Amino acid sequence: MAVRNVAVIVGSLRKASFSRHCALALMKLAPEALKLGFVEIGDLALYNQDLDTDTRPEPWTRFRDAIRPCDGVLFVTPEYNRSVPGVLKNAIDVGSRPYGQSVWSKKPAAVVSTSPGALGGFGANQHLRQSFVFLDMPVLQQPEAYIGRASSLFTEDGEVTDDGSKRFLAGFMTTFAAWIEQVGG
Questions:
Q1: Residue 34, φ and ψ in degrees, nearest 5
Q2: Residue 77 DSSP SS3
Q3: Which run of H or of E encompasses 68?
Q4: Going from the N-terminus, what domains does the chain have, and what CATH number goes with each?
Q5: Is the pLDDT at 73 greater than 70, yes or no?
Q6: Quick check: pTM over 0.85?
């Protein structure tokens, strides 16, 4: 299996977010065939087509250039108001434009949603999957990853505090690596 570069996008800007802790854990548990790296979204200006010219905001160019060469994308996000955080939706919009130049097309994706509550961010997870259909991103269907009680499941440096969860997340990443091989270009 070739080494595949995977962008990791976290849907929370909070420095100590549960989603970032989860993303760190996933990066540690990933098989060696995946080289994962964070692609930050906090400095992306709100998408406005009027700004998407030759002098577009530099963070848009940086973001698009970081995603374009990746073999896959791992989204790790909290749920805000039963949906996707606005900052994550904006990143998706920035990457999908200008029309016909989307950096997302054909990139295998996986979604992990987190929540301090029991539902594990189901709404955000499902809303992201809806966008991926239009963006032409083949998304890993099984296993689904809704990580509830995330506030007590991860340490700040990405260690998993529960052995069963650790096995599940390691298996998720192994399956994602196989998914990238199966559907990637």
A1: -110, 130
A2: strand
A3: none
A4: 4-45+57-183 (3.40.50.360)
A5: yes
A6: yes
